[in-house]
Write a structure and sequence with these properties.
four-stranded parallel beta sheet, 11 helices, 338 residues, two-stranded antiparallel sheet, alpha/beta
């Protein structure tokens, strides 16, 4: 069972964390649920060259452009509702792994031109709607060109290099749309030195057989710890809040880097599993934290391959996350009332 709770941790970051009882890092999935059988597990992962692993539940060929536009309409409605509260919405769309490592896909698998163009189509849709965002795909391609990976080989999640770069780009965007943030200078996160952890990636841990897992091997994960003396400090209101899935959890460093770049506290709520971005935003907007201390800027993190899957995506999100677009809009409007 998931718990919605407020945790003071990782320096001056005030975190609203959705945590699962006894949930290990290896069991955290970004988008979809646990397999129910060995056959399900094999179908949920594509084992590519050199044991590069890719999610097996998305299409490598088809794009729902109508769904993209429908999602943007709902995002625009949220932008307008928040603006009436003097809250600026910023949308960060994270590109999917196959865009960067298509050459590592299994033999016979390839990414269609439509899927290659999907991220650009999403960004164009947000631009037409006047929703602030930035091109995360080109940003990550620049990192890759410098010889740094942007996703882990056997894991769904981004590397620290990608998380840091996106945090810097997000901070630049936040400063552009809201030049003056509340709070005191010097209240942002002070970053500690990176450390390394050796473990299996989440897809290797969840979906491979023991023999495959051994063959794939453990990976080195870069984790930035907080600086000495930065733990359990004051938990005053944060002018910037991040809501999203497990890519923005503190383990990968995005909220810490964002706080450091903004020099202000940053709060975050996230949830593992197949819950989707719609319920995550709703849980925050309906929370006591939002009612008591709404932020100046709300950063809504979404994921490219699921962008077109609205809140009514039956069979794709878990049952508790499913609602019609009309219900989602209605609840959002109620939650954003002064």
């Amino acid at each position: 069972m998931h718990v919605f709770r407020r945790v003071r941790c990782l320096g001056r970051i005030l975190s609203i964390i959705i945590a699962a009882q006894a949930l290990s890092l290896a069991a955290i999935t970004a988008v979809h649920a646990q397999p129910r059988s060995a056959a399900d597990a094999q179908a949920m992962v594509l084992v590519g060259q050199d044991y590069w692993l890719f999610p097996g539940w998305g299409s490598l060929t088809n794009v729902d452009l109508k769904g993209v536009e429908q999602s943007t309409v709902l995002i625009q409605a949220a932008r307008d509702a928040l603006a009436r509260r003097n809250i600026q919405l910023v949308v960060v769309v994270l590109p999917e792994k196959t865009l960067f490592y298509a050459d590592k896909l299994p033999a016979g698998k390839s990414v269609s031109s439509e899927v290659r163009a999907r991220y650009r189509n999403i960004q164009d849709s947000l631009t037409r709607a006047g929703v602030p965002s930035f091109d995360g795909e080109q940003l990550m391609r620049g990192i890759l060109a410098q010889g740094q990976d942007v996703f882990y080989r056997t894991d769904q999640h981004w590397t620290q290099a990608a998380a840091d770069a996106c945090a810097v780009a997000t901070a630049t965007l936040v400063k552009r749309v809201t030049p003056t943030l509340h709070g005191a200078a010097g209240s942002g996160m002070k970053l500690g030195a990176p450390t390394v952890e050796r473990r299996y990636g989440d897809m290797a841990e969840l979906f491979l057989t023991p023999a495959q897992r051994t063959a794939a091997g453990r990976e080195t994960f870069n984790v930035r710890k907080n600086s000495p003396g930065q733990a359990l400090l004051d938990d005053g209101p944060a002018p910037v809040h991040v809501t999203g899935h497990s890519m923005v959890q503190p383990y990968f460093g995005f909220p810490q880097k964002l706080s450091e770049q903004l020099d202000r506290p940053v709060s975050v709520n996230w949830k593992p599993g197949n819950v989707g971005p719609w319920i995550m935003l709703m849980e925050y907007l309906e929370s006591s934290a939002f009612r008591k201390s709404p932020p100046q800027v709300l950063v809504w993190q979404m994921f490219e391959p699921t962008y077109s899957q609205g809140p009514q995506a039956t069979g794709l999100w878990d049952n508790a996350s499913i609602m019609s677009a009309a219900t989602w809009r209605s609840r959002m409007l109620v939650a954003t009332q002064p």
